[in-house]
Every structure is written in structure tokens, then in C-alpha cells.
Amino acid sequence: MTRSSLFRRDEAAGLAILALILFVVFPLMLDDFRLNLFGKYLTYAFVAIGLVLCWGAGGILSLGQGVFFGLGGYCMAMFLKLEASTPEATAIQSTPGIPDFMDWNQITALPLWWEPFHNFGFTLLAILAVPALFAFVIGFAMFRRRVGGVYFAIITQAIAAIATILIIGQQGYTGGVNGITDLRTLLGWDIRPDSAKVALYFVNAVLIFVCLFVAMAIRKSKFGRVLVAMRDAEDRVRFSGYDVASFKIFVFCVGAMMASIGGAMFTLQVGFMSPTIVGIVPSIEMVIFCAVGGRHSLLGAVYGALLVNWAKTTFSESFPELWLFGLGALFIAVVMAFPNGLAGLFDDYVKPRLAWPGRGRRARADNPQPAE
Amino acid sequence: MADDKKVPHPTISRRAILAGGVAMSASLFLPKGLRAQDFPTDQVNTTGLAVTDDTVQVGILHSITGTMAISETGSVQAEKLAIEQINAQGGVLGRKIETIQEDGASDWPTFAEKARKLLVNDKVASVMGCWTSASRKAVLPVFEQNNGFLYYPTFYEGLEESPNVIYTGQEATQQIIAGLDWVAREKGAKSFYLLGSDYIWPRTSNKIARKHIEDKLGGSVVGEEYYPLGHTQFNSVINKIRLKKPDVIYAIVVGGSNVAFYKQLKAAGIDMTEESPLLLTISVTEDEIRGIGGENIEGAYACMKYFQSIENENNQEFVAAFKDAYGDDMVIGDVTQAAYLGPWLWKAAVEAAGSFDVDKVREASPGIELTSAPEGYVKIHKNHHLWSKTRVGHAKADGQYEVVFETDDLVEPNPFPEGYQ
């Protein structure tokens, strides 16, 4: 770990292969419809990368990442909805100029906290700041009190449940069960046609690489070392004089921001946002993407998210009545047979056959079996 | 939840097809057996839909897994039955309907994804599907952007009129106003307690109900409350009801909450057969009663457009064919019947247009009538909803409703009711 270059050669090769797949192979091989679907899958990869940092590196298992995904998604959806709700487009309502679902719920003026979302700059800031702030509050409350492990997982799950109930209950302000639907344009650019979805796919792919670089830099830094040390022997790190809680809070906030970026892109890609993506089940699914890809591998997380979602679509198209069983079996098989996911499989079987320079030093030292 | 109800294998016996086929062909206004060669494919399909010389593809898009599966299964069965019967009669413009079924998985983004798949990838000529308002809202932009055509079966809150959807269920006013008029006229009801599950349909429906009660009937609303979906503790509201002593409890509780609500009402000593207070619901069909238990809801009234017990020839044949196909223990609720209308209305519109093109089918749709509908005669309004009768049913212990009232005329659909907003 004394190397001064940013990436080891095997990492650089991995990134290059992923770039090849995302920027060349998929766009050439898939028709617009399938490419759009992969664009949607990619939005989940943001969450998975964040989870690799929190869970794989830091040992913080969050079962509530859907909340952060949702926060980003709702921020973006609020901006798009306001843009779509011009007085002319909503002339049929009792109060023209406000989002349609507010009108259905007898709200006659735009709530104050919606107002700033007229501004795109503010919206972008909110997509990063709101989940970070929320994660900070949760992290501060939990980690300062040394709540960790299973207890933390359970609390995050409860937060996911609360968030869903809150969104559904406050339907006049959030769109309730239906969510915020019928989003049309982003700063005048129609997001609905296929061409727009293809463009969004490439935006997604670029952002994924940005997140990957950030995550790799974090892992490589001294901070990343402390994180791994903390995961494996928290007390020792604490007795060595490190402020364990601050490290955890920071990495949890980073994971939340990445999930939020994914949520915002999801809204653009799919054209609406709804509470079904915020709750417990999707939050657990997000952990599964990470587990299938391999929770210690950032690249694995991207592949995991793509593979699981692709399998979900393919199984459900071929066997509409049985697909859930197939998917369940896949998860069980992966966890039982390959506890380190696709990345573990790659490390154990493929890598030894390749002549990577410096092999052998890497994973074993980097990622000893975690103890949670 | 997905496993609560066994999904019967969707095969349909020959007898069912013959029974249904004979009934339909006897009453349909179009002659039986249009021949495909009279309608060359390049003329009836100018927009690249999945139509060949002998087949046409139609999508079915419902949840068959997840929490909504238990509700949507009946609609899938009805749609498949209608399609089998149409095929047994020679299909649409001489072409057999082939179905492509997709699972919305009770998840709204999945609905949007599958709708795109059906329209963009499979190029289906029309789609029968969706159940919850949330799923319809999710697919609506997809249908409008790709110019698809959706037949939506559920009674819903209205406030929508898409050129790409035919609403075969009732919008809110069709289900509410005639029932309230009836209970005020026949039962002398003056005071009402409104309650419902907390989402757009019950809220919009109660808004309309409150306006009608206060402005038109001169009655009063003594309470209005909402509970989250899946809520199971209704004791506090039951106590409030006992305190306020309304003439009518107007209940729009949906899904699993119904079971708790009616059992707790009974346990609290409110015997619905005594009708003080009287219970009127717009959310409990025969399907829900299977979960609630007939003995727990005996004596309640429901306002719908269809009950399984409606006595007419169309309905008797429909019920017989349905049971023959899916088993004697099946019940048929309002939405199941509305779903059954979808394929028939589409067939009639396609044949009136002489084309599968969505634009031409849309143009031909207003005014399309069905004399063969189990609920009786229906007609498509230019706002894409159906003219239907409204009926009041009285729940019996065996889980069926006895029809005690039906409107003399068809009720005009009015998805944007003036004065009720």
C-alpha cells in the first residue's frame, strides 16, 4: 500500500472493462428499450456502491438505504412536477398552477417548503444535502451512543417503514401511494422519448464512474484503512485514540449521498417517484444487489445491481407466475455458495489464472474475512 | 400474500367456450365470423402493431405476485375468459387473439417497465390491465407517449380522462350518488359517518359524498376519518360511531383492513342486520367477502354496478362459464365483471373501425355498445368511461348480495363533476 499511483493495475483494468461494457458493449448490443432498462438498473448501482463503503468496508449494515434513494428521487420529482404544473397545463383544476395531487387533496396553495424546488440549482444541492443531513442526524444519534451491528440494521429498517408511512399519510404534500407522477420535462428538455432515455443512460454511466472514483479514493486513503480496522476491531481502534463515531458518521453520509444520486437519476429515467421504492422491501433488495456483487468489491456492486435486476426482468417476462421463486433461489444459492458474491468468485477462480502483477498481495491483506 | 389464493390454471373448458360463445354471438350486433381475408393485414394495421394474417397480440398487465395479486387475479381470469370466448367465435376481424401476460408485481415502477415492454417491444394492439390507481398513474405516460390503448377495469376516483384509456369501471360519482340518494329516500337517513383507507380513492369519494350529503340531501356528516392501508385497529372509531349514533356508516375501507373492520364491528355489538346504524360501503365486493366472512358482514349494503346475483340471461351464462373455467367455488365481484368487458369492448371497437390502428379504434370507441354485458347494456361515453346502471346490494350470510335497488336508467359518467370538487 505504499504505491503512489491512484489505482493498482488490476483496478485500472477492472475499471476499463466496466467502461467498455457500459459505454460500448451495451449501447451497441441492446435496442433502445433494453438500454433504457439498463439505465434504470444502473441507478440502483449507486446505492450498491454506497453500501460497499458502509457495509463492506465499514461494517455498517444499513437496511434503510431506500430512504436515501427516495429522498433524492423525491427532490428531483418535486422539481420536475413543479415544472410540469404550469397554470396552463393544470387549467382544469380548482387551483391551477399547483401539482395535480395537491388539488385532489383540497390543498389550495403550494406549501412553503415546496417553493425552493422551483430552482434547479437548489434541487441539485438538496439531492446531495438533504440525505447527507438526514444520515448525519441518524448517524450522530446512533454511533455516538455506540449503537451498531444488528441493532443499527433494525433501526434503519424501522426508519424505512416510518418514511413510507409518512409519505403515504401526507398525500396532499407527497402524492401518497400514487407518488409524484406524470413528469415531463427537465429545464424544457422532454425526458420521455427514447432518445432522452438513451442520453440519461450515458449520464448515469458517467456518474457511476464518478462515484466509483470517489469510493476508491476513500478506500485507499488513511481514512479507508481506519474504516477497515474499525470493522474488524472497533475497540482497538477506539483505544488507539481514533474517534470511531465520526468515521462511521462520515461514511454513512457518503453512502446516503450516493443512494440519493441514484434516486434522482431513477426519477429521471422512470418518469415518476413513488413510496414503493422507499420501504423495507426495496431497501433489503438493495443490500442483496451488494451481496450478490460482493460486498467488498466496488466494481462487484455495479455488476451485482445490473445482474440481479436483469434477472428480475428476464425471469418475470419468461415465467410471470413463478419468477419470484427463481429469484429467491438465486439469492439463496449465491449466499450459500459464494458468500463474497461475484467478486469473491472472480478472486478465487478467475484471478489465480490471470497473471496480474502483484497478485496475492491484494485481496487477502485488503479484505480479511469480516467478523460481523 | 401472493400465496393466499391459489391461482387456478387458466385453461378454459370447451363447454365454457361454447356456452359463452353462443350467448355472445346471439346478442352481439356484429355478424359472427368476419373473415381475415376480407381485411388485409396491411390495411387494418398501418402502424406496425403485432398483427398477422391470422393473429393479433394483446397484453395482459396485472399483479400476479405481491400484495395486490389476491385482488387482481379475478381480473386476469375474466380477461382470459373473454379472450377465449372471442377466439372461439372466430376472433377479431378474423384474427385469433394471442395474449402476452406480464406481471406488475404490485410495484408501480415495474408496471411502467412492463407497459413499455408490451408497447415498444411486443407492439401489442391493446392492453387489458392495471388495478390500483397508483399503477394506472404509473403507466399512463407510457401509454400516452407510445400511443397504446389500455382497458382499465377498476372503479376509481375519476379526475382523469386519457385518450389512451377506456375506463370500464365506474368513476366516483357513478358509484356514490345513486346509493346515497337511495339510502336517504328509502331509509330516511340524515346523518352519516364517513370513513376510509387513507389514499386518493377513498378521500376523493368521501369528498363527493360529503358534498352530496350536505348540499343535495340536506343531511349532515358527523365524522370523517382515514386509516393507513393495512390498518387493523378500528376500536376507537367504532366507539366514536357509537357515541355519535349516525344513521349511516359510509365505509370505504380497502384490502386486508376490511377483515379487521367488519369483525370488530360485529364484536362491538353493532349488528348490521338491525340497520341502526345502517352500513353502506362502496369497497366490498363478493371477492372481499370471501376474506371477511359472510356472517361478519351480513346485513350491510354495498353500492356497485354489478353483483354476481344479478338476474339476467347474460349474467347467468357469464357466471356459469366463469365457474366452469375456474371452479365452482369462484365468486365474481364488480371489478371482475368490468375486466371481462374490456376484450369485448375492444373487439367491438376494432370491428366498428375496421382497423387495429389505435387512432381509429379510439375514434370508433365512443358510442360502442355491448348488449351482451353481464351487468346488462353498457355504452362507451365520449369521455371514455361507460354508461352503467348503479345498484345497491344487501349482503347475505352466504357471501352473496341480493340486489335491492337499481337505477332505472344508465348513469352518465362524469369524471370531473362540477360542484363536487
Properties at a glance:
A: 372 residues, mainly alpha, B: 421 residues, alpha/beta, Rossmann fold, 2 domains, seven-stranded mixed beta sheet, five-stranded parallel beta sheet, 15 strands
What oligomeric assembly is this protein in?
heterodimer
Q: What is the approximate shape of chain A?
A: globular
Indicate the low-confidence ranges of chain B by residue numbers. Answer: 1-12, 14-31
Element pattern of chain A in H and E: HHHHHHHEEHHHHHHHHH
Provide the CATH top-level class of the largest domain in chain B. Alpha Beta
At CATH level 3, the topology of the largest domain in chain B is Rossmann fold
Number of strands of chain A: 2
Strand line-up of the largest beta sheet of chain A: 1-2
- Tell me the span between the first and last alpha carbons of chain B: 36 Å
Q: State the secondary-structure class of chain A.
A: mainly alpha
Pick out the low-confidence regions of chain A: 358-372
Number of domains of chain B: 2
Which bin fits the share of residues in helices of chain A?
55-70%
| DSSP, total strands of chain B | 15
**The number of domains of chain A:** 1
The percent range for helix content of chain B is 40-55%
Largest interface: A-B, 40 and 40 residues
Name given to the CATH architecture of the largest domain in chain B: 3-Layer(aba) Sandwich
